[in-house]
Amino acid sequence: MKWNRYLQKMKGRSQCPPAVPMTEMLWSWIGSFIGILLVAFAHWGWALQGLDMVMIIGSFGASAVLVYGAIASPLAQPRNLCGGHFFSALIGVACFKVLPEMPELASALAVSLAITVMHLTRTLHPPGGATALIAVIGSERIHDLGFYYAVVPALSGALLMLVVALLVNNLAPTRQYPEFWF
Hints:
By secondary structure, this protein is mainly α. About 65% of the residues lie in helices and about 0% in strands. It has 8 helices and no strands. The mean pLDDT is about 95.
């Protein structure tokens, strides 16, 4: 075995990318602030008031990085954002339901199957892996949602963030979002 060649791969291929202009940082900040604020208001405010539901999940923080901070990435496009969260949520819930007494195995299966399904459906969105994992390790409130978790919060929260991404990212003269829809 050629260990030296193997270890050489870990050096990387190129240098760090250039710094992002301050205007890009500002647009990323504005989009992420409004997007997460909207989902948070839906969670704690008007939309779910009086209901024992969840609207905001940790994986939306990572989605915000992509859809407001890396808008040209294939991983940040609408089909990836929405499909990645939706399919991953379904898979996570299914894994929890099949293996509720084995959270270790359910967790590993949820994430690995979510990645596979996102590849198959061309909806790869890294935060989807967290959405699948949350379905397994989440609170009783998450578990009580069952497959509804795929709709609220996963898909509906992603759609709210998408609306903000469309509105805010296209305000800047140097930005265009999305790169593609389907």
